Amino acid sequence: MKSADSRYHWMDRFVFVMAVPAIVAYLGLYALVPDVYTVGPAVLLLLALLASGRLWPGDHLQREDYVFMSALLVYFLAQCLVNLIHGEDISEFDLATRFLAGALVLVFTRRYIVSFGVFFFAVALGSVATGLLALYQMVQGTGGRVTSFDNPIHYGNGALALALVCSAGLVWSVQARNRVLWSLLLLAGFVLGLYASLMSGTRSGWVAAPVIVAVFAYTFFPSFQRHKVAVLIAAALLLLVTVMIVQVESVTQRTAVAVEEFQDYFAEGRNYTSVGLRLDMWKSGLTAFSENPLVGVGPSGYDVVEQKLIEQGQVHPGIAPFRHLHNQYIDAMAKGGIVGLAAYLYLLLAPFILFMRRVHSSDQVTRALALGGALFISTHAVVNLTQSMLERNIGVMMFIFIPLIIWSVMAKRDDEVRSRQSK
């Protein structure tokens, strides 16, 4: 971000000053305040366009940046291709354009990004705020699931994402200069964010627990021989958290209800429950996929298939109002076929692999950021087994820009480490 003579160009100063509050507000408030999840990224996109002359030919980008960017562009192109083949209305291209915008913003944030300290501070404050909101609603006794401006699902999954990034930040904080303060802040963020997720009653995030444990295990396994005591303490804390989760009444109740509804669907044909409707949506989605496995039937074509199944009595009419199928994989298959599914899997796997390649980094900042990115992507992959997060703007903006910001902060740290090593 500095010129050769170490003086900031006026454009650098301007866009960086504008970018910092946009990034901090997005990280800290996207689960709490309406429209922040769109305003922050929109500001970054405008700044990227404004600074485009200083961003190209992209000599500040590394090969892995292009791989990350390709995941966004491939998904964008696949969505456009499917929509063009099926002659969809122009409105169906709307969400896809966010992925193109994300690729442009990545070029920008790789040059203009906050420090890792500012990043973890914003994430921790955001996670603490989500938890305090949940505590406030529980104390007020409003009843039902806690939430913010949207529905409990997006609030709960947003809180869980912030909590997991806070937990990854603890990898760095225990060795930070002010490690006690940083550790307390990030630990508070983890606990309160997790509490908000539990109180939201969002079951889709809880299912990701085994995957989260697996990512942590892979990250810390090489350290086991050198730090057996520390790893055992971490395992004990993880077990304690698991026991606490199981003891939360809302978790046990909603889990038991889900199991009962699943059994009743197959045993008694009850398809008018929450789980039953989801299973009927999946049934209709797979039927649509079978009609055109290569490129699916498109969004409007799926509506036709769904209506036919409803008229035949094969699925419950209650699925008609839902815009998506509550399973991103089946949704991609139904509307985009193998092309749509492959693009979505690449969107998940490319950044996940890039993050996992750095979870064993000798630099603790890089390691913490990589772990945070890997946890976010893997949790999203599991959540989308029962949700279609990419079929709503709020889900799209969360999925694109949180990993993108984590990647940019981590890549900046990598650049700094390499610069020091070369001197």
Automatic annotation (TrEMBL):
Residues 189-345 form the O-antigen ligase-related domain. GO terms for molecular function: ligase activity. One of its GO terms (cellular component) is membrane. Keywords: Ligase, Membrane, Transmembrane, Transmembrane helix. The chain crosses the membrane at residues 12-33, 39-56, 68-87, 93-109, 116-135, 155-173, 180-198, 204-222, 229-248, 337-356, 368-387, 393-411. Pfam families: Wzy_C. It is found in: Membrane. It comes from the Bacteria. PANTHER family: O-ANTIGEN LIGASE (PTHR37422:SF17), TEICHURONIC ACID BIOSYNTHESIS PROTEIN TUAE (PTHR37422). This is O-antigen ligase family protein.
